[in-house]
């Protein structure tokens, strides 16, 4: 029985994939149609023309059949079946991957550990497997945004409580005033609300929000895959095919990447994952990013957003499982 190594791509650069496949195959057909005819004769008593309906499954497959007969003792029966097959982006990727794997004209390098970097050059096809870690700075900023939404709700609720308490203290009922006075002592939520109001107008928050907007608006995103032996693979993914939904599917899972090498880091080199923002282009950008991702109170400790050697940068065609 034929063994199929079917891959399911969660991220797929369709433009790159189709261009490679079109060059190798002299063009790409996204659909094909096959026609099969069968003829036989038998004794019969009827005549005329009729359509023969196939079961509902045949209709779903795009198949049709026709039946024709002539008057007389012999009946000529002709059945014609047309089958239309349509490729998907995933099926085309599996075809290309199979071709690259089986062909002796192409070499797909494996990159798993530091020693593998010596055999890699820009432009090489490379395949890496490991744990998807994403972009620490992007994930922390996203967490910050969600966390602030919750704090905003707490602040609004606390503000309503204060307004009710203030009204109660002005009440003409002595018992109501006494109850309001006892309830006005600050608690944990009240202190948190006060801290949020102070932080809400701070330059630090405005700065972080601007960085978040820059990352989201960039046509290219930098994410990381870490192999089991510790090699970091920086993936420059296209925003046309990478979005929040794709990131959620990939988050903390083990996947394989197939793509082209664009840079091999050497000892002493590093890549700042905030390089597509203003702070990434500053001379002290690395220190600033490290400070933002490790010292910011709402984010807390996190993985560094600066990727050091050993690492390789890859333009991915697909991230799949």
From TrEMBL:
Annotated protein name in UniProt: Uncharacterized protein
Organism: Streptomyces hebeiensis
Highest classification ranks of the organism: Bacteria, Bacillati, Actinomycetota, Actinomycetes, Kitasatosporales
Compositionally biased region (Polar residues): 172-187
Region annotation (Disordered) ranges: 32-51, 159-187
Pfam families with a match to the protein in the record: DUF6414
InterPro entries the UniProt entry points to: DUF6414
Basic and acidic residues bias (residue ranges): 35-45
Top-level taxon of the source organism: Bacteria
